[in-house]
Amino acid sequence: MAKKKGKPSGNTIALNKRARHDYFIEETFEAGLVLQGWEVKSIRAGKVNLAESYVLLKDGEAFLFGCHITPLISASTHVVADPTRTRKLLLHNREIAQLFRGVEQQGYTVVALAMYWKQHRVKLEIGLAKGKKMHDKRATEKEREWNKAKERIMKRH
């Protein structure tokens, strides 16, 4: 029986659905995030947007750009909160080296795919991705429509 796609599981904080639409995801990695206290409180409240975020690799480190975490009014009264500040990603050296190789040699980009809880820590799923062309997007959509039609036909019989 096919697994239905519904709401994300309880530990998922935010998804970047646009990334899977615009890119072929070749490989995924799990990264930790360096966060401030007010950011964790806002994440618990679900005030995160990954839509325009991407990962920049610089000086042997990885940073998350464009992730918007809206500060809570009650949580960030004593701190000047920057909702789109650059956040450092925690990865192993071999994973960072693999990302550098992909970006520099093969023309890939690194995008944020999902943010989720793993035990009591916030984790970010990042993907080594290659951009889709317009005809690739149409082919993906056509295949999705065909799969839906196939399921309908199989359900009737």
TrEMBL record:
UniProt source species:
Kangiella profundi
Composition bias, kind Basic and acidic residues: at what positions? 137-157
> Can you say where in the cell this protein is located?
Cytoplasm
What GO cellular-component annotations does this UniProt entry give?
cytosol
Note one Pfam family from the annotation: SmpB
Identify the gene encoding this protein. smpB
What is the protein name given in its UniProt record? Answer: SsrA-binding protein
Check the UniProt entry and state the signal peptide residues, or none: none
Gene3D superfamilies assigned to the protein according to its UniProt record, in alphabetical order: 2.40.280.10
Regarding protein family, the annotation reads: Belongs to the SmpB family.
| Molecular function GO terms recorded | RNA binding
InterPro entries, per this entry? SmpB, SsrA-bd_prot, SsrA-bd_prot_CS
- Report residue spans for region: Disordered: 134-157
